[in-house]
Amino acid sequence: MPIQKSTMQRRWFLHMNIALVDDSAADRNSLKLYLHVYLKKHRITAELEEFTCAEEYLEAAQHRTFDVVFLDIYMKQKTGMDAARELFAAGSRTKLIFLSSSTDFLRQSYSVRAVYYLVKPIVPEEFEQAMQFLELQPDYAVPFLEIVQENVPRSIPTEKILYIDVQGHTTVIHTETECISLAVSFGKLTASLEADERFLPCIRGILVNMQHIQDMDGNLFRLSNGETLPINIRNKKKIGELWRTYLYDQMAKED
Fold first, then answer.
1. 35-60, pLDDT tens digit by residue?
2. What are the C-alpha distances in Å from 26 to residues 29, 86, 116, 125?
3. So where are the chain's domains?
4. Where in the sequence is 4-aspartylphosphate found (predicted)?
5. Which fold has domain 144-254?
6. What is the topology classification, in CATH, of domain 15-134?
7. Cα–Cα distance between 145 and 73 in angstroms, integer?
8. Tell me: the pLDDT tens digits for 103-117?
9. From CA 157, how far away is CA 134, in angstroms rounded?
């Protein structure tokens, strides 16, 4: 029975919804500056939504999903800790970073599974560490494939690549949305991907991204978009074992 892959991918936030909950406009503006620099540096796009109190944020969270919330603790009426307890009790999967001018609630932050506790005024080193703890990007060896298309440099997210193959004297990158033909050798284009565990040479001249393999059907790999790719018959057993090992590793990471 084929092993299904569709539910085993680790989440990678290419675009995020981030909530900033703080009754101080100055503190929100300071945090936004840090975020803009970090997100641009790491090529992550985000929608930033500001809230001046916990009540406003909790109301909004009932109707839309936020990937990350920066939550000030000392606010009028409901505190950030109160709001965090409500989120925790509701089973929210939003990643939480507390903001506070003191460490009074540091120990309590563990009880609601906060990712980090930032003490104001925020310093760059602490902010960097908080963002690293969020694990917004996957631990891929090669997150982006750098190419030049019609004299224009491009960065292709490798997670979006289905496979790369050779067509005549052209190497083609097949992504979820487009096919990119390049006048460059297959070996040169794919050299950097050899260090990335996701990419598997299924037959000479074809490198497949195992993230997008749905199942193995005889001598074929069936991809998430319905396409099929041939498997080297001589090395079929080894190729199948490599794919299954990758799947099991991904399941273990999810757990």
1. 999 988 887 888 999 999 999 999 99
2. 5, 26, 21, 20
3. 15-134, 144-254
4. 72
5. OB fold (Dihydrolipoamide Acetyltransferase, E2P) (2.40.50)
6. Rossmann fold (3.40.50)
7. 41
8. 999 999 999 999 999
9. 20
